[in-house]
């Protein structure tokens, strides 16, 4: 740093000058420096009083013992205590009579919506419209029944999972191991016509009806309307879980499908299961 003093301003310069413009070495304002020092002091005090320094397993707890997780847990506990009477009532009442109590029904729908968005929306969508391989819960097409009791059982025990021995269970054979390739082509073309669609090859439809009667009617019924008690889809309503185009149907018949839904009895309370049952039932397709 240069000791040169400017003739007009009593500031040291750095010795740098560009086009007659000198670079001064002016000190920071006192108010800025004191603010900076106070921020340092405040930061040190904060790190001592509150959780701050990370460790291998957790951060330092802080002298005040404050925890955002603890605060959230307290709030959750407070709401659970406030809702306890309604949850107790919801868990004990007959499923079919929940709708008879306007206050209980309103609570069940609101609570069930929260449960759905937390646990169910990942597969069935935030609006419950489903996705490829995940059922749409807004329509009236049910694989296992759409009554309150049916929905409650499905949610409680799930579908085709290995965790619950009471899970809904059905399995479509992989017909690629049973039928000839030509027979699969025939039955796929026939199935496409059941819902009013157009076959890829109309000349195969008649033969496909025979293949269907021999291999598929036992589950999907002679007329293709399915059997909800077996979880066998209705093939006549143009509502498809995986798709109704030729290629998708060909894949389904050849390799079968095996969608799995987990049981929720170990994750949700009985009141929560009944609440989400009520919410799903009132979406539009409940029986």
Description:
By secondary structure, this protein is mainly alpha-helical. Helix content is 45%, strand content 3%. It has three domains: 66 residues, no CATH class; 95 residues, Orthogonal Bundle (Cytochrome Bc1 Complex, Chain D, domain 2); 81 residues, Cytochrome c-like domain (Cytochrome Bc1 Complex, Chain D, domain 2). Strands 1-2 form a two-stranded antiparallel ribbon. Helix 5 packs across helix 6. The chain is elongated, with a radius of gyration of 34 Å. The chain starts with 12 loop residues before the first strand and ends in a 6-residue tail after the last helix.
**How far apart, in Å, are the first and last alpha carbons?**
87 Å
Shape: elongated
Q: List unreliable stretches of 5+ residues.
A: none
How do the strands of the widest beta sheet line up side by side?
1-2
What would you say the CATH architecture of the largest domain is?
Orthogonal Bundle
Mean pLDDT: 92
Task: Report the CATH topology name of the largest domain.
Answer: Cytochrome Bc1 Complex, Chain D, domain 2
Helix share bin: 40-55%
Question: CATH homologous superfamily name of the largest domain?
Answer: Cytochrome c-like domain
Please count the beta strands (DSSP E, at least 2 residues each).
Answer: 2
What is the CATH C-level name of the largest domain?
A: Mainly Alpha
Radius of gyration: 34 Å
Task: Decide which structural class fits the backbone.
Answer: mainly alpha
**Major sheet:** 2 strands, antiparallel
The total of helices stands at 9
User: What is the domain tally?
Assistant: 3
Strand content: under 5%
Q: What is the ordering of alpha helices and beta strands? A: EEHHHHHHHHH
């Amino acid at each position: 740093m240069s000791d040169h003093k400017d003739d007009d301003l009593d500031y040291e310069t750095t010795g740098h000058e560009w086009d007659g413009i000198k670079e001064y070495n002016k000190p920071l304002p006192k108010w800025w420096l004191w603010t900076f020092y106070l921020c340092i002091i405040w930061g040190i005090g904060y790190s001592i009083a509150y959780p701050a320094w990370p460790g291998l397993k957790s951060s330092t707890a802080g002298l005040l013992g404050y925890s955002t997780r603890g605060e959230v847990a307290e709030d959750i506990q407070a709401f659970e205590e406030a809702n306890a009477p309604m949850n107790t009532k919801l868990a004990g009442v007959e499923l079919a009579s929940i709708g008879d109590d306007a206050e209980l029904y309103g609570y069940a729908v609101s609570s069930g919506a929260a449960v759905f968005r937390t646990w169910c929306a990942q597969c069935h969508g935030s609006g419950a419209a489903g996705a490829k391989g995940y059922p749409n819960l807004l329509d009236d097409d049910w694989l296992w029944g759409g009554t309150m009791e049916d929905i409650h059982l499905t949610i409680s025990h799930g579908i085709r999972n290995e965790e619950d021995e009471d899970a809904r269970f059905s399995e479509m054979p992989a017909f690629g191991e049973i039928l000839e390739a030509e027979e699969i082509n025939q039955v796929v073309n026939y199935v496409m016509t059941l819902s009013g669609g157009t076959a890829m090859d109309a000349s195969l439809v008649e033969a496909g009806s025979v293949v269907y009667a021999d291999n598929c009617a036992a589950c999907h019924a002679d007329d293709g309307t399915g059997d909800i008690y077996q979880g066998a889809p209705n093939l006549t309503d143009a509502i498809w879980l995986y798709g109704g185009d030729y290629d998708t149907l060909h894949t389904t018949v050849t390799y079968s499908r095996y969608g799995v839904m987990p049981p929720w009895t170990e994750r949700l309370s009985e009141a929560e299961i009944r609440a989400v049952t009520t919410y799903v039932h009132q979406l539009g397709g409940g029986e």
